[in-house]
Amino acid sequence: MEEKSTLGWFNKQFSNLKALNCSPQQLQNFGYLISNKNIKTKWRAVPSSIAEGYHLLGMQVVGRRGLRIDDQIYRKSPRLQQIVPRGLCFVFKRETDTLHLISIVYPTSKFFGDDDQDEEVVVVDDDEVQKEVPQGTRLISTEKANGEMFTVTVVGQTADGSWLIVLGSKNNKFLFHLNPKKTTDRQVKSMIKEYSGNADGYPDIDMEAKPGWTYMNVWIEMSEFFLLFLLSRPDAADSFCRRLHEEKWTACGEFESFIHPHLVPLQRGHKTVKFFALTSYNEEGSPRETSGAQRLKDLDWLQETGFETVTRLELSPTTDIMQLRREVWHRDGEEGLVLLVLNPDNGEILRMFKMKTVWYVVYRGLREKIRNMMKRGGLNKPDQMKSEFRKTIQKKLDIFKLHDEDNKRWLAVADSMSDAVTKAYEEGEDKFGDIFRYRYPDLIEKSESSRMKV
Question: Which PANTHER family does the record match to this protein (predicted)?
Answer without folding.
Answer: CHROMOSOME UNDETERMINED SCAFFOLD_18, WHOLE GENOME SHOTGUN SEQUENCE, RNA_LIG_T4_1 DOMAIN-CONTAINING PROTEIN
